[in-house]
Design a protein that fits this description.
The chain has a single domain, classed as Rossmann fold (3-Layer(aba) Sandwich), CATH 3.40.50.620. 35% of the residues lie in helices and 15% in strands. The protein contains eight helices and six strands, in the order E-H-E-H-E-H-E-H-E-H-H-E-H-H.
Length: 219
């Protein structure tokens, strides 16, 4: 079991969820840029145990955890958190944030999302309650703009801030958009590539590649 650890410094905690099947440089670069831009105390990688909106069953949790641990081992500000594997049932983000708030009641939480996840936000379980527990930080595609007449457009108008300091000063409720380096790496395409016998070198850390090749998990 990976237990909660004290938060270094006074910044918010970045909460980075997903199946990470497998984790790759797109995940890691996004986490690094958001952490540095926002002054996060740490980024918690929280792999999903039972994705509620996916038909495909993800790779075994122990292998995904091992890949994330080795991928993040050299960065002091990255933390691996296995709490979703210690909870039964579907891995709903609202439950994970509630659990984190219990562990760190005085620390603001920043839920780190890709643009695709943000565009599907209204389909999430109890999605409107997310703002009671965390800020939303969206890794934005350069040049992208939200249509103003959409549900999310109106939500942005109400909750968007351009000031990282607001994420430190308030416990939850804001949306922050940040353009990040776009590495067009897809975990789905990586699995297909590996299954076809193509070497994934330079798309993910060598340590992750070694685990994949040794285990044969995507063959």
């Amino acid at each position: 079991m990976i237990s909660p650890s004290p938060v270094p410094g006074n910044g918010p905690i970045g909460v980075f969820g997903g199946t990470f099947d497998p984790i790759h440089f797109g995940h890691l670069r996004t986490a690094l840029e958001l952490s540095e831009t926002l002054g996060l105390a740490e980024v918690r990688f929280i792999p999903c145990s039972e994705p509620p909106h996916r038909d495909r069953k993800p790779t075994a949790g122990n292998l995904r955890l091992e890949m994330i641990k080795t991928a993040t081992a050299e960065h002091q500000g990255f933390v691996v958190d296995d709490r979703e594997f210690r909870r039964s049932g579907p891995s709903y983000t609202i439950d994970t944030l509630s659990s984190l708030k219990d562990d760190f009641p005085e620390t603001p939480l920043c839920l780190l999302l890709g643009m695709d996840a943000f565009l599907g936000l209204s389909g999430w379980h109890r999605w409107t309650e997310l703002f009671e527990l965390a800020h939303l930080v969206v890794a934005q595609r350069p040049g992208w703009n939200m249509p103003e007449d959409s549900l999310l457009g109106r939500l942005l108008e109400e909750r968007r801030t351009a000031e990282p300091a607001r994420l430190h000063e308030t416990p939850s409720g804001h949306i922050f958009l940040q353009a990040v380096t776009q590495l067009e790496i897809s975990a789905t395409e990586l699995r297909h590539t590996i299954a076809a016998g193509v070497d994934p070198r330079y798309l993910l850390p060598d340590s992750v590649r070694a685990i994949i090749l040794d285990s044969g998990c995507y063959r």
